[in-house]
Amino acid sequence: MPLVSVIMPTYNRAELIVQAVRSVIAQTVPDWELIVVDDGSTDDTVNKLQTLAEPRLKLVHEPHISNSARLRNIGVAASRGDYLAFLDSDDLWLPSKLELQLQALLGKDGAWSYTDHELIDASGERMPRRAGRFSPISGYIARDLILDRTGASIITWLVPRNLFERTGGFDESLTMREDLDLVLRLAELGEAIPVAQALALAREHPSRKTMAGADQHLRSALVFQKAAQRLADPELKKLARRRAARHHAATGEQFVASGELTKGLATIGRSLLGGAAFRQCVQATATGCWRLLRHHLRSR
Fold first, then answer.
1. Which domain holds residue 82?
2. pTM for the whole structure
């Protein structure tokens, strides 16, 4: 039985997936298996993987469904390791990633690990991080995640299988931000053991599946609303509702800035009722209006 199962969903990543797989092969811990779940790729992804002739790599073929949560759950179901790790097919690990995390978790039942990460561009050059933050906070960190005191990117996790199973796995109804949803549940159920190093590299490139603007904030708000419904601790429940309201205020700002004034102001109003600070709602309205005005002035 392998010690670690690495789950990698992919779709049409022929140009990058070999680099991702080689970063797993380069791990200083050799006791792993790599489950690549191919989402019906139509490019040369499968052929590129087969040329590697890596016996620890298992390829699972699926029809194209474009649901990362479902693909990752399929990968977990096909795996056998005591620990689970997740790597996207356009990202990379540093060679000591698994070793340092396994050392950190040694003798700590029910704990999981996360690390810092850096951004790289399409050619692999380091980039400044534009959003999010990392602080090596230990223990039950749900509160810290909700308050944005730290972040735990999915490509940095190392999770015992039994803890992952207790979470119920990825929520397949979430087509985006399913990683945020799951890390909140991990943080509720198990103590986090961080490794205070950047051991993963997230690649920014034109075909990367990302969100922007109102859609990003709406999907984040949905995750925190879901957390607020689930959480038993009254304080955490309140904090999750406020975080959802903040994302709704940011959504309203995006709507106003794009010229959807009625929709934007209504969304900001709902965020105020949901617990967003009055100052934040005023700022979102003002910023959205200023961005809209600036756009009109530039287009004249």
1. 4-203
2. 0.91
Higher pLDDT, 291 or 156: 156
pLDDT score, position 130: 67
- Quick one: 265 and 284 in the same domain? yes
* Chain centroid to CA 123: 22
Structure tokens at 41: 């790729």
Distances (CA, A) of 241 to 197, 247, 283: 31, 10, 19
Give me the CATH number covering residue 20: 3.90.550.10
181, two tokens: 């949803």
Taking only the tens place, the pLDDT of each residue in 229-275 is 999 999 999 999 999 999 999 999 988 998 998 988 998 888 888 88
Q: Which of the pair, 134 or 96, is modelled with greater confidence?
A: 96
Which segments of 161-249 are extended strands (E)? Answer: 192-203
In a domain, 208, yes or no: no
Which residues on neighbouring strands pair with residue 6, listed in sequence order?
34, 85
- Residues 125, 24, single domain; the answer is yes
- Rounded to an integer, what distance in angstroms lies between the CA atom of residue 222 and that of residue 171? 12
Report strand pairing: 83-86 vs 159-160: antiparallel
In sequence order, what E strands does the chain have?
4-10, 32-39, 57-62, 83-86, 92-93, 112-120, 126-127, 159-160, 192-203
Are 122 and 207 in contact by the 8 Å Cβ rule? The answer is no
Assess if residue 155 is contained within a domain. Answer: yes
Q: Are residues 105 and 16 in the same domain?
A: yes
Question: In degrees rounded to 5, what are phi and psi of residue 183?
Answer: -65, -30
Structure tokens at 141: 């960190």
For residue 43 the two structure tokens come to 């490019």
The C-alpha angle 102, 106, 108, rounded to 5 degrees, equals 120
